[in-house]
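This part of the workshop introduces the protein records we will be handling. An example says more than a description, so a record of this kind follows:
>
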Amino acid sequence: MPISAKTAHTVSELLARSLESEASDALVEGYRIAGKTGTGEIPVPGVGYTSGETNTSFVGWGPVDDPRFLVYIWLEKPSTSIWGSEVAAPVFPEVVEQLTLLMKIPPDRIRKASN
């Protein structure tokens, strides 16, 4: 086991709070999610790294209290911004909104009321 269930819960909770406190573009209305952005410079052999170009990502999962999905967004050399929080994170809710419909995952308030 890579990490304990307690550690997984703690990390999920911290990442969910972080997204909520910064009003992240990755938030999904009706669902509490956890996730993390990524921004990486691109290595160039013999040069080091490119300037002004990155690869960006966002990985998120939810619902936080009962994870049913994990989505990874990867954008190679985005042209509108070099930051994962600005280009990859906004794609996440678009995917998750469709995914929750396909998987028939009700919003948190409905799901929790039926438990």
